[in-house]
Specification:
Pfam families: HTH_19. 52% of the residues lie in helices and 0% in strands. It is an all-alpha fold and 85 residues long. The chain has a single domain, classed as lambda repressor-like DNA-binding domains (434 Repressor (Amino-terminal Domain), Orthogonal Bundle).
Amino acid sequence: MIIYWDKETNSKNRIGKRVKELRIQKKLSQKGLAEQLQLAGHDFNDLTILRIEQGTRFVPDYEVVAIAEFFRVSCEYLLGVSDQK
């Protein structure tokens, strides 16, 4: 498992900001996003999404992939490595 720690923001993940932006663009609540990810077979709830967005939860690499696939963006985009979706 890969754990990304953003030292600049002292966040436990690097994807929170982008997850929130993408969720809002799709007009989904945190609960709505969690439900969509559950339908795809992943174990998320609204508290999980909240903690990811706030940067208070580590996000394993397989969850980064699941979220990227749902939003149809690259993992690099979610991680802030690239601005190209």
